[in-house]
């Protein structure tokens, strides 16, 4: 099954480069969830900009040599540096969801951690921010960047993280608030169930038994963003983008472990669950008025 790309959903715009904005919750989300699309659009000559809501202060740290950062005040600053280097690898512009001149260095809100955590009670926790206030900040940035396309999470935030869900809400509200003549097309990342099953088979064949990683099988639960194939209406498939995505993920060393075999790369987060980097991402267009997929 071949689907059009989000760019192909646009009205004909001549030969001018597109403007693409991806809105994410924490450093590394941009490369994990939309890295193929970001690298693909850069290679097309489009202008690509990532907006990040927090510094990821509550992230779990994988490498033993960096374990002292977990839970410390220094983790956010370290992840800011990781994100800077990852954005350079992808060749994209970047800013934070922040006020005025601070947007390049200091987000307005901080990582909320998982639901029920102590971090969620912090007065600056992003998940607890007034949606209207955050949407106004984002709408201001979108009014300057004037994107043709905006990419973000589905209503479940991909896998249910409160900051991802909040990012979806804020992005939908921001796009909806723009004048219709400036309103970009809004897409959320979804994954066809058939892709996940194919990737699990691939991982079972390629991840060494002694790697210390968990390889999900066909009976394991799916993330909320994994949906029936028919619900995924658009896709970006670009094997050439994978090398850029891998280099960017390696810059997020506190959060992501990347592995390569002759047939391709895969990665794992702190949960030790292997996931394939297959050079493909699924999307569905969202109605800014409802936040729900169109069609």
Write the layout of secondary structure elements.
Blueprint: E1 19-24, H1 29-43, E2 47-52, H2 74-90, E3 93-96, H3 131-145, E4 149-152, H4 157-160, H5 162-177, E5 185-192, H6 193-206, E6 226-227, E7 234-237, H7 241-251, E8 257-261, E9 264-268, E10 274-276, E11 280-285
Parallel strand pairs: 1-2, 1-4, 2-3, 4-5, 5-6
Antiparallel strand pairs: 5-11, 7-11, 8-9, 9-10
Helix pairs in contact: 1-7, 2-7, 3-5
The residue ranges in which pLDDT falls below 50 over 5 or more consecutive positions are none
How would a crystallographer describe the biggest sheet? 8 strands, mixed
**Helix percentage range:** 25-40%
Q: What distance lies between the first and last C-alpha atoms, to the nearest angstrom?
A: 18 Å
How many runs of DSSP E, i.e. beta strands? 11
β-strand percent reads 15-25%
Category from helices, strands and their pairing: alpha/beta
Q: Which radius of gyration do the C-alpha atoms yield?
A: 18 Å
């Amino acid at each position: 099954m071949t689907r059009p790309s989000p760019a192909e959903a646009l009205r004909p715009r001549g030969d001018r480069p597109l403007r693409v904005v991806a809105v994410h919750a924490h450093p590394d989300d941009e490369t994990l969830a939309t890295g193929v699309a970001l690298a693909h659009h850069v290679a097309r000559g489009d202008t690509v900009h990532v907006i990040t809501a927090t510094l990821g202060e509550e992230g779990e740290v994988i490498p033993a040599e960096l374990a002292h950062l977990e839970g410390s005040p220094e983790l956010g600053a370290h992840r800011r540096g990781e994100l800077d280097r990852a954005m350079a690898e992808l060749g994209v512009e970047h800013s934070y969801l922040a006020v005025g001149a601070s947007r390049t260095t200091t987000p307005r809100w901080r990582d909320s951690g998982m639901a029920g955590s102590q971090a969620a009670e912090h007065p600056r926790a992003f998940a607890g921010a007034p949606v209207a206030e955050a949407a106004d900040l984002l709408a201001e940035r979108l009014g300057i960047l004037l994107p043709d396309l905006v990419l973000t999470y589905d209503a479940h935030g991909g896998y249910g993280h409160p900051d991802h869900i909040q990012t979806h809400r804020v992005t939908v509200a921001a796009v909806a608030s723009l004048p219709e003549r400036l309103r970009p097309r809004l897409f959320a990342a979804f994954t066809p169930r058939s892709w996940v099953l194919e990737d699990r088979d691939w991982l079972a064949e390629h991840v060494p038994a002694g790697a210390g990683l968990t390889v999900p099988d066909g009976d394991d639960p799916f993330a909320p963003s994994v949906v029936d194939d028919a619900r995924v209406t658009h896709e970006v498939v670009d094997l050439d983008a994978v090398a850029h995505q891998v280099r960017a993920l390696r810059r997020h060393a506190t959060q992501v472990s990347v592995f390569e075999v002759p047939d391709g790369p895969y990665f794992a987060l702190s949960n030790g669950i292997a996931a394939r980097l297959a050079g493909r991402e699924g999307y569905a267009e969202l109605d800014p008025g409802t936040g729900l997929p169109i069609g």
